Structures are given as C-alpha cells and as structure tokens.
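Crash report, auto-generated. Payload:
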Amino acid sequence: MRITSNAYDSSLVNQLNQLSAQQYTIQNQVSTGLSVQAPSDNPAAMENTLDFQAQNAAQTQYSSNISTLQSRATSVYSVLQSLQTITSRAGEIATSAGNATNSQSDLNNYADEVNQLINQVVNAANTKDPSTGQYLFGGTASSTAPFITTTDANGDVTAVTYNGNSSVNQAQIGAGMTVTADIPGANTGSTGAHGLITDSQSGADLINHLISLRNNLTAGNTAAITSTDNADLQKDENNVAYQVANNGVVQNQLTTAATFATNSSQSLNTMISNASSANLVQVMMQLNQTQNAYQAALQSGVKIMQLSILNYL
Amino acid sequence: MLGLFGTLNLAARSMQAQMTGVEVAGQNLANVNTTGYSRQSVNIQTSPDVMTGIGPEGTGANVTSIQQAVNTLLNTQVQSQQSTSGYWNGQQSALQSAQNALGEFLNGTASTASTTSATSDSSTGLASQLSGLFSAFQAVATSPTSTTARQALIGQAQTLATTFNNVSSQLGSLKTSLNSSLSDNVDSANKLLSGIAALNQQISAAQFSGGTANDLLDQREQDLENLSQLTNISTSTETNGAVDVSIGSQALVTGYKVADTLQSYDAGGGQMLVQTAIGGQPLTLTGGSMQGTIDARDGTLATLQNSLNTLAGTLITQVNGIHKGGYSLTGSTGANFFDGTDAATITVNAALAANPNLIQTSGSATASGDNTVALQLAELGSTTQSALGNQTFNDNYDAAVAALGDSLATANTQVANQTAVTQMLSTQRSSVSGVSVDQEMTNLMAYQRAYEASAQMVTTINTLMGDTLAMKTS
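Recovered output after restart:
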C-alpha cells in the first residue's frame, strides 16, 4: 500500500484523539469513583442506579418515620408507667377501705388521696407529645385537650368528658408495613384500638371508677367499694397492663423495622455501588495502559515524521 | 534520418517535457496539505517516429496529458459514508443536548480506599426529587400536624415542579435550536448546489477545449462530499463532464443549472421539515445531518418530552385526586395540591405554598391530626400507575432516562464506527490520490537529471554544428 506524507499525520492525530478521549474518560472515573455518570454511559446501569436510589430514599424515610414513632412510643410508655402506679395505688386504697375497721375520717383521708389520683390521671391523659406539641391521647383529634373535667365547689372532679376520638394514625415503617404508636384516650366502640382511660372492650373507665371510689369513700359506703369499685379498678389495672404490653410489642416492631431499614439501605448502597461505581484498581490499570499507548504513539509518530528523503538530499 | 536540426529539436522538446515533469512535481508538493487535492502526474509518450531508409526512427518524447490519480469508486463510497456520518453526528449532537437538558447525572467523589465505594447522588435530577416528594409526604403522614414537615413538603414539591418546568423549557428550546440548525443546513446545502452547478459549467468548458480540469474536479468532489454530509444525494455524470445531483426523484442540479433548491417548512406544530423550494415537494431524506436532526427531534426527543408530560400530568391528577378529598389543619377541603396539566405548567397551589397548614392530610373534617390522606399520598410513590404503563412514578422516569441514554449510546457507537470507516476510506483514498513528498522529490530529481541530460544533448549538437561549419572555413 502506498503511504503518503499526510497519511501519518492524519492517522497519528486520530490515534492521539482517541487515546486522549480514553484518558479523559478514565481520569473522570478515577476522580469521581463512578463508571456511570451520564445516562448514555450505560443506560441499564443508570436505570438500576436511579431505581436503587429511589428505594434507598424510601428506606431512609422509613428510618426517619421509625425514629419519630420510637420517641412517641417512649412518651406514651412514660405515661403508662405513671398510670400503672396510680391504678395499683387505687387498688390498694379500695382494698384497705373495704376493711370495716376504718373510721370515716380514715375514709375521708383516702378520698382526698383519690382526688389527687384523679387529677394525676387527668394530667397524664392530657400529656402532649414533646416533639409536636399535640395531645398524645386524643385519637386523631389531637389539637385540643382530650379530657375536660367538671368540678364541684370544692374543686373536686365530678365528671369528665372525652373530646378526642377513637381513631389512631398508622405510619409506614416499611414497604406495605404500617404500625401505630398511638393510643386513643377512650374507645367506647366494640372494635378498634383499646382506649387508654375508657375502653368498653375491657370495661375500663379509670376516671369514672376513681370518682365512684371517692364518692363511696366520702359516703362511707364500704360495701359498694368492696362489691363494685374493687372489681372495676381491677379492670382498669388490667387495661393499663394491656397497654404496656402493647407498647412493648410496638417498640419491638419498631426496633426490628429500624434494623431492617438500615440493612436494606446498606445492601441498596452496595447495589448502587455495583451498578455505577468504578473499580479503582481496574481503572488505574486501564489508565496505565492508555498512557503507555499514548506515549508509544507520540514517540513512534514523532520519529517517523522527522524522517523523509529531504534529510538525505 | 533526423539530421542535426531534427535532433536539436528533439533535445529541446525533451527539455520541455522534463520541465513539465518538474512543474507537476512542484504543483503536487505545493498541494501536499490541500484538502481534497488529488495528485497529478505527467504522461510522457514517445513522439511519432519517422520512416528512414533503415526503418522507423524515434523522434523523442512529448507530453500528452497531465492526469489525476483518482479512484471514482472510492469517491462514491466516501460520499455515501459522509451521508451516514452526517446522520449520526446530527443525532449525537441533538441527543447530547437533550441529555444535558434533562440534567440526570450521577455525581460522586472517589473514596481514598482502593475498593469500589463511591457515593453517588444526583440531587439535581428529577429522579431524586420525585422520591423526595414521596418521602416528604411520608414525613407529613408520620407527623401530620408538624408545621416543619409541611413546610419541607411544600419546599420539596416546589423544587420538583420547578425542575419539571426547567427541563421542559430546556427541551423546548432545544427543539427550537434544532429547527434553526436544520434551516442553517438547508442554506449551506443551497450554496453547495449552486457551487456545483457553476463548477459543472467550468469543467465541461475545459473538457470541450480538450483538457481535463483536474483542480476543478477536486473542488467539485469536495462540494459533493460536503453536500452528502448534510443530506443523502444521488449523482450521475453526463458525457460533458457535468454531474447531476438529485435527492430521491427530485433533480436539484441538472447540467449547469440549479433545477431546484431546498427549503425548510413547518409541517404543523413547529415541526420543521425539508421540501423543494420551487416544486414545493416534501423530501424524504434518508441520511445526512438534516435527517439526523429531524429523527432525533421527532424520535427520542419527542418521546422524552411526551413521557415527561405524561409523568407530570399523572402526578398532578393522582396527587390532586387524593388531596382534594382531605381536610387541612383548618378544616378546609377540596383544594388542589398541584396546579397545571403537564411538565411545563406544573406548580404547587399558591394558597398551600403560602400556608402549609392548608395541605389537606386528614381524612376527617373533625380530626385535624388524622393522617389517612397523607398516608395515601405517601403510598402513591410505590403504587403502579396504569397511565404510566403500570410503572411507579420513579420507575417510569428511570425508564425514560434509560431510553434517552440508549439512543445517545447508539449514536455514540455509530459515530465512533463511522469515524473508523471514514478514516479507513480516507487512508485508502490518500493511498491512491495523496501526495508523497518522498515520491515527488524522487520524481523531481529524475526530471532534473533528464533535463540536464537533454541540455547536454543541446550542447553536443551545438558542438557538432560548429564542427560542420568549421569544415567550410578550413
């Protein structure tokens, strides 16, 4: 084949262009650590990466949901603990008061204590979520205080009204997995989440039962305390115990879901990395090879182009 | 028998012939870097012999022609490859711009470790903003009354809407600039057509007077190749040396005349196509950068625009459909979350943007803390949409990105292939038509030596003539 003067130049320019383009691509991969940057680099890998990134964003959001729910569940738990103390003390009072040896003044003392317990229960039931400032036990009507009391001339609570509802919010903690950390203050229906204070499924009605206990104490009606109040308060204690157990279950679920979300996120990161990350060792090797080729092309090209018949004329 | 004068004449003609050789070598050397130049060579033939008593006797040599080294088959191949190259280059540059307009890139910083771990996030693209929107709905669903979460949701939704608007307007202006590059191409093609017609006339005039217009042929070949880059043409050579140019059955250059020129026209909806200017005949192009531009515009780019509009439209209807039935923190209901109908017009309802408490997340008019609607909105992110071919919003968008990437990757590969083919053809052609300095210098020396020898011949005849004249005086 006849090789002309410009054949060397143009093919050398072409080769150098190609090698420079390769070096540019490889250098980009080294500095960004990515083998895919634009959709055209590898459309399938790009699609997978975007897909995994979206899934990863969802997992991150689940984690954030979980930690919100965890702090809410913890707030709920601390209220449940104080209710447990209150119900067990009320049970003790009911048992002791049933004893016939008590004088009316003893009973009045008990009644005073029960009044305090009532106030404590109302306070506890009207607790706000420290992070959102919303009432924890109003169901989904969480913006107003759920329990409103009516008091007599002495300031003693005579009745209580529930302003909330019996619905609870479900929140997503995983794909197709929802959980609620909320407890409605009262549920007088036959289905749904058990109410914290009033619950027709378990027969609990803590505040009214305490009011009845206090009234019987003040009236000296120890028979009614033994026959009715004792049993009623037992239902309340059981209901609180049920709520504590339920809260434990929810917290467990949240912990498991949190671990799952973290693990998913990690494996998605690995998948993203597999799809779009450059293998640095391999890329550095390629860079070396390309550089060698570039040098060789330059050296041989310059040597050949320097020579012509003119050197010998 | 030539005699002294005949021989002197022979030597003089020989000097002329060798001189022409030197001139042609000089012309070749001067054009060693001229694009499209085909090397020329001198045809020297023995001049007609004369009959003598001892038989025919030679009378030296004459220059009969100066010839071009051209392989017309190669030229035809180059023309058709130029048309293919032009097509893919047109596609490549259009799709490259579309990819930039979409702005879906992975960013990363290499970690120092030698293992493969890079953080890739494309925070500017629509993909992460779509998933961000659904995450923001999730956050509101988990804390339905939180103003912070609502504010964040509005921010995320506004960013998403703005990005949709930006991408849509960039793709729109890309379409406009593709249309104007099409009409630029049409102008260039028309200039080339009239150039070719003018060259046809000069070439056939030169042939009529009995020569070949080598340099004009080179020029015309260049013009034809440049025209091939713009569009697919077919050519035929007439007996007078003129080349007729046509696209399909539409004659554009016949003989010395431009029969018809090209014109871009609006085929409806701003879709610019090419037709003949006089005949008004729409042209079906099959190659060249014009068709590459048209195909990229009406193919991949239009598909991308459509799928973004469908995506935005579906997002608007689905989100609004759920949102409308909800109740805000103030108990209001029936408002849209997004306004607009497609990627160009999508915005967040201004009333909601001004007061995030108006986002309707509750399923109950009386319970503002309810999250039923927010949860439904959040779950939209993982719900397949029949309007999107039973894909989720993210999956649908990711597929659109991949489709664009596929088209561009194909164009890139084709451009690389075409570059290799063109390079190979041009090496082949340069092997036939290219100038070699070594060869020309060698030729130059050969002609120089021959010229010197003929000059010596003249001196010798001169001496002989002197000798002859001296015979009389002595």
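Post-recovery validation: DSSP finds six helices and seven strands in chain A.
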